[in-house]
Amino acid sequence: MADLFSPLRLGELELPNRIWMAPLTRCRTEIGHVPGDLMAEYYSQRASAGLIVSEATMAMEGHSAFWHEPGIYNDAQIEGWRLTTEAVHQAGGRIVLQIWHGGRACHPLLNGGRQPVGPSPLAITGDEVRTPEGKKPYVTPRELSDQELPLIVEGFRLAARHALRAGFDGVEIHGANGYLLDSFLRDGSNQRQGHYGGSLENRSRLLMEVLEAVSQETPLMGLRLSPLNSYNAMRDSDPIGLISWLAEQLNAVPLAYLHLMRADLLGQQLGDVLTPARERFKGVLVANLGYGAKEANAAIQSGAVDAVAFGRPFIANPDLPARFQANAPLSTADPTTFYSAGPTGYIDYPRLNG
Hints:
The protein has 11 helices and 15 strands. The chain is α/β, with parallel strands linked by helices. The strands form 4 sheets. Strands 3, 4, 5, 6, 11, 12, 13, 14 and 15 form a 9-stranded parallel β-sheet that branches. The mean pLDDT is 97.
């Protein structure tokens, strides 16, 4: 019977455990969205994870949603990320790059005045975005034309190619949390007509085209989805129907794993998305959101999921697998430093043995 500490085969990778590090935006890049030595230290400290999934990384220039998040669209960023991949590999770890397009969550003040884009001209409401001029309301995105969407697909394809050049073991497509691909998937944000709107098949078309293109560039491809998550003002009229249909379709592409947020961060949409995903998707299923070691272990032992990704616990506990193994107490992450600059609250959390 498998448990948290059992190895897991993922494509050509042999993972030593099933305790994954979830993608965590930390806003610590240098000028030009270039990763540096600080980020390399942060990730290498957490190399004992079964797999590290990097923070969301811009596939294309001009689509920043977090100010100091990383990119993978130019040579300086590729070389900057190489510092991280080499450090992680030297520490015995494995790491994939999460590639991403911020979509309507981007802001003109972060992108030289450029208006954000989305499936429909519907702005994110009820929240604000951090900018160099302080927090600002989100703006209404420009609706992408069907003719522009091949450029998005190409942007993801090139990002995957660049990730391999930077030394990553593979990529994860970010199809969650209200960013571009997720905003096409869900009917609360996608109200367009034509080939990319309306039916489930049409709303999923852009994602499936991205997956097909990216699969040609990398030996290992994962996908993150969040059908229930209402973050970034997201809704869907039938999230269970969405994941049930999509999980079946994903068997047609060479997907190494499906990384599924099991719940809504804000608690507004309820439902069970793991069960229909497990019933229909034939690959490795990874769950995320709110797990402790005991519940995660039980989920793996029961066969409900194959691995569990941990977010905040990995921020404050760089040696999380060792702490789980020893049943040791966990340090608590300081949310005031989640998106700040510098090493504080980033690389200074203590290890179990000092």
